[in-house]
Design goal:
By secondary structure, the protein is an alpha/beta fold. Helices cover 34% and strands 17% of the residues. The protein is built from 15 helices and nine strands. Strands 1-2-3-5-4-6-7-8-9 form a nine-stranded mixed beta sheet, with helices on both faces.
Length: 419
């Protein structure tokens, strides 16, 4: 077996970090109703969302606050709060999103304001149970849900207010547009607006940060064509192991005839990516489910994407039991071609960033998801276009890079606020 291909598959696994969703498509298709025998990923019980009164509020308005579940509580915070806020979904309709707000324990700065960092999490899945605020001790996704805790605690110790969105559709009604840049940026931006609106101690400047899929979210937030957060100035972006050139990974792993460690997670991630595109493209969903884009085995597992998180999706009784070849139906090549086209169009390499806004990118030398050569190509591409990029490499794999780099990232963030 070619270990390079396996590594590429593993790469695809960890690098996609997003939240979870009630990923029910709006396309008028009678999709599959069966699923694997695995029980649904467990989730925390939270207060029900309000039914009325929020639909006419502007995007970025908090409508509900309660104590966060135990797995979302951080020792460095004076309060760890679960919030629901208004946003606009991928179809342009009013929607609710959820997230975690961590208030620092130290007094506010002399000017009476807290610096604000909005942090995007790594891929956890597309089911409601995959939202980090829905974590429970027995959840298979708990490690990924808590991966940003080290950086959050470091920032809290500096008096920074840290907000952590679950992303569109994760934990709340509606589908999760997995890895779609505009949706991820909107989740970050609207949460920043909501926090600034609710807590008057929040300063007027903020930084977007994130890991893996959250790194994609942070970089998309820096897109100069996006509107600013309400009442806030974005002064920097920090992206840890952001995912780029996904088509390289898909091509590398796509011909493997067997399921194997690393490949199992890559298959699960590819399924999430297909679902993310199908949400807004009924013709593509029809190709996948009704016209031979996916194999019969893959079609039967489609409902698992709305029940299970990434770790469980990678199980041999779910998508992880299929080889890449076994996912494809008779028209699988067409489905893959469309997936690659969508990925290329939405790649962070193409983002038009502000040339006056500092960027920071952290890479893992041992990363098997966000491959080092691809990350360095991204950095070189940005620098060639005049974007000011601080770049650091760490002797770590994909997930641990977030912890190893946390002190340096926190110091860089505080330098931006000091200017």
């Amino acid at each position: 077996m070619h270990h390079g291909l396996i590594a590429a598959g593993t790469l695809l696994v960890s690098m996609l970090s997003v939240g979870c969703a009630d990923a029910t498509s709006t396309a008028q298709i009678d999709g599959p109703t069966t699923h694997s025998s695995l029980p649904a990923t467990p989730q925390a019980a939270l207060p029900p969302p309000p039914t009325n009164g929020w639909q006419n509020k502007p995007a970025g308005t908090i409508v509900q606050v309660s104590e966060a579940p135990p797995t979302s509580q951080l020792v460095g915070a004076s309060q760890s709060l679960f919030v629901r806020y208004t946003t606009v979904d991928v179809f342009g309709q009013p929607a609710l999103a959820s997230g975690l707000v961590l208030l620092p324990a130290i007094p506010v700065y002399p000017d009476g304001q807290w610096p604000l960092v909005v942090y995007g999490h790594m891929t956890t899945g597309a089911a409601d149970a995959c939202a980090p605020t829905r974590g429970v001790p027995e959840s298979s996704e708990l490690r990924r849900m808590q991966q940003g805790d080290t950086l959050a605690n470091a920032l809290l110790a500096e008096g920074v207010l840290v907000a952590r969105p679950d992303y569109e559709g994760l934990g709340e009604s509606g589908p999760h547009p997995y890895l779609r840049g505009d949706s991820l940026a909107r989740a970050m931006r609207d949460m920043a607006s909501a926090v600034r609106d609710r807590w008057e101690q929040t300063g007027h400047r903020w930084i977007a940060a994130g890991h893996s899929e959250g790194g994609v979210a942070a970089l998309n937030t820096g897109n100069r064509r996006h509107p600013p957060a309400r009442g806030l100035e974005l002064i920097g972006v920090a992206a840890i192991t952001p995912v780029t050139q996904l088509e390289v990974l898909l091509t590398a792993a796509g011909e493997l005839p067997v399921a194997a460690p690393g490949v199992d997670a890559a298959v699960a991630l590819a399924a999430l990516a297909l679902k993310g595109i199908a949400i807004t493209d009924p013709e593509f969903e029809s190709l996948l489910l009704m016209e031979g884009g996916l194999s019969d085995e893959a079609v039967a597992l489609w409902p698992d994407l709305e029940r299970l998180c990434l770790e469980d999706l990678s199980h041999e009784d779910s998508w992880g039991g299929l080889s890449p070849q076994a996912v494809r139906g008779p028209r699988g090549d067409e489905a893959v071609a469309e997936l690659i086209r969508e990925w290329r169009e939405d790649d962070i390499r193409l983002l038009p960033m502000r040339r006056d806004m500092p960027l920071r990118i952290d890479a893992g030398l041992l990363d098997a998801v966000a491959l080092l050569p691809l990350t360095e190509a991204l950095v070189n591409d940005y620098r060639s276009r005049g974007y000011p990029v601080t770049y650091a490499r760490w002797p770590a794999d994909h997930s641990p890079t977030a912890d190893v780099a946390a002190p340096a990232i926190a110091a860089w963030i505080m330098e931006q606020f000091a200017q």
